[in-house]
Amino acid sequence: MKEQEDCVMITDRAFSDIKACYEDMVLGLKKTANGMQKVNENSQSISNRTRNMAKVAEESAASMQEVAAAGQDQLKGIEKMERSSKQLAAIAEQLDSAIGEFKIA
């Protein structure tokens, strides 16, 4: 009889240990699931922010291209103005020379 009681106690302890291990495992799985949920949320947040950054970078690049094109247009306009100014100076010299011929002495 004593031997049976000892076996029952040993079996009871073994099942108690198994139950404790199982509860620890369930708790660990719940913590893992919560951690994975947080990782998923953070991943989505990072993905959204990355998309926003890419959009801003694309808009910035487009703006820079527009500014560069406007700068090129301005440069062409300035170069044209310089040529016209030189032509005007040459015409002014010709006019001055022509007027000089008509001076009354």
Characterization of this structure:
The mean pLDDT is 93. By secondary structure, the protein is mostly helical. It contains one helix and no strands.
Topology:
Elements: H1 2-101
Ranges where pLDDT stays below 50 over 5 or more residues in a row are none
Question: What's the overall average pLDDT, rounded?
Answer: 93
Decide which structural class fits the backbone.
mainly alpha
Rg, Å, rounded? 45 Å
Oligomer: single chain
Give the overall shape, derived from the CA principal axes: rod-shaped
For the biggest sheet, the summary is:
none
End-to-end Cα distance: 155 Å
Q: Helix content range of the residues, please?
A: over 70%
* Beta-strand residue fraction: under 5%
Q: What is the helix/strand order?
A: H
Query: Can you count the helices?
Result: 1
Compute the number of strand runs. 0
Keywords:
single chain, 105 residues, mainly alpha, 1 helix
Short description:
With 105 residues, this protein is mainly α.
